[in-house]
Amino acid sequence: MFQQIGTIGLLFLTVPTLAASLAEDLWTNTVQDSACSGTYDINQLKQTLFQQDQPSTIRARADRLELSLDGLSKLEGNVSIAYQGVELHTPEIDLDLNNYVFQSMQGMTVVNEEFALAVHETEISMTNQELDVQGADFVIFDEGFRGRAESVYATTKEIQFYDVSITHCPPKNNSWLVSAREIRLNRVESIAVARDVTLNVGKLPALYIPYLRFPVGTSRISGFLPPQVESSSLRGYAISVPLYFNLAPNYDLTVTPLFSSSGNHSIAGEFRFLSRLSTTQFEGNFLPSDSAYRDFLQSRIDRGSDADLESDRRWYVGAKHTMTANRWTADVDYSFVSDENYLRDFGDSIDDLGRVGLSRTARLEYWGTDQEFFVTTQRYEPFSHWGTSVSKTPEIGYNRRLTLQGTQLGIASHTAHFRTYDIDSSQDSTRTHLDLSWKVPIEKEWGHASLSGTRSMTRFDFNDRHEIRLLTTFLFDSGITFERSMGKDKRYFQKLQPKFVASKRTMNRVAPYPIFDDGEHTHSFETIFYPTRILGYDKLEEVESVALGVRKSLTDLISYRELLSVQFVVGSHRTVSATESTQDQFLGLAIQGRPSSMLQLSLAALQFSEHDDDWTHEFRIKFEQAEWRFTSWMRMESASDLKQSYMDFAVPVHDRWKAYGRLHIDWSEQEHIESFIGVEYAGCCIEYRVLWYETLRYEWVNSESLQTGRGIRFEISLKGLTSLGDNVRSMVSRGARTPFSIYAY
Prior knowledge:
This protein is mainly beta. The strands form three sheets. It has a 30-stranded antiparallel beta sheet that branches.
């Protein structure tokens, strides 16, 4: 019964007159000179006088005991009663042993592992299983809530609270408060009904709700969820009101109508299904009319003025499924959109701006101890050529790894059937790939060494021809360790790691194969020493490459922190494409240092001597100490015309105030990808955040070019309850982005 009373404490908060005497007795500061950093300590009240080896037995202790033949008894002086993990402490208690009724008019403290309760007057009927309390202060230990109710009446089926209030703030701090005139909890259905609910922020009432029905604990009920308000250039001011349907314990449905000041209203839906082995999610969004987008289509030269009159209907449908059973996993991610601009306009994040196509995948995979089997189907539709697609139907692969007399052997193979759809025609082809690899590792006290090789073959079969690519790679990797002591408290070890890689790839120079499942073309130390790490099978050119590298590092043996590392690479490669043959010498240098546990620096550069326009440079710095944070990088790639810089910082200003900012700029486009600057106040139980931001987006309404969205966001976070406004914390706490590829029309 008392456990259910504690559960209610998670749901409601406090009024300005909330008493805190019980909470003050239990509160223990965990950080010196900080009233906000603390916890409620059960040991302040709970005694160990009763060994509950028989939990069904009631045990009692008191200074005096009065017994009566009529069954009325009294315990006086330091009365303690223990029953089923619950302890009661009171100066005096009256016992009606005939009706099993306990009554105390001088106050009582009740405590167990989950909560503490201090009441002024109490009557407990064990026969009827009823509890009647007047003036109750309570504390919930794990969740950190405290509260008060003028009266509580509880039975096995229902608990009634009158003039109840709860807060998550520490004692003597009522920064945010919620109160209710009455709360009725149905313990059978785990549903609560509250009347006259008031939210107070500081001393000001911020919200009043005359009637509120909500679930208790992990239970769920159907009803409206909190509305969301947003502002954008496409929709103007918009408000969405989600409606939740609790259909069953393992599946539910949410329908969200959105009303826009610009007239392009929408309705969205999400269905979730959970089983013992899998999770499934279906979602969709439908805009009955988007007249601005229709006008844009009619104004395009390639569409003409006779564009489909129904083209102002825009929609999105998606399905995701994940299954895990023993060593088998299955993933499905399929989505459909009405037009090539939908995700750019209504995507969930800025990453949708960089989407150049729509990908649909389904994968079944088996992971063994030393082997892997998978089946994949995939369909890709590029936005720049809407109406065309490339699909794998399917791809089947098998990989195997084994060790034979100290030698590691590996086989990686797959075959995939491709179908390319054009507007007027289609083409079928097949790709078969086989990797045979071996590695001889040597581990010694002085270091390590390994020699490995790979022989790869990729065959493409078309209707009228076939094409074969062969790749042979040799890699020698080693490391020599030198330990050095410098005084009693300073011990370091140095490691020298020479590397050598040679690769040769040949191919028939015929018409290029459609690029589909390849990676982004980039230059780095990884792509030099592992030639197939980034580039996909469809993008490998004929090449002959030789590279020699060496890495020198210095590590502190006390903290195991790598203080300094220098990596150097030099080599040459010759590439042959369908139209020309080129020979390049390249030179690379990377330096990374960690002079302290708080500061990290790195610098990397790759230069190709025969082509001055082919180079990659990168610089990174990271500093973190307590509340201070600073992260910055700059990366430039000539091949992809990438010139971007990033800076993220957080600086304590005064007391609980902190300033933060982020500048992520693309210098090729002269645009902010995602930049903001803001301030934050973090109190004991309430936080304020406000920021000004600039975000890159694609604006088809005004022009087919990249634009920048600007605005102000704010958030009020009531710890333990909810957040009001925008999700500023999510934007601020998001980690440093990698270079962001921009695709403008």
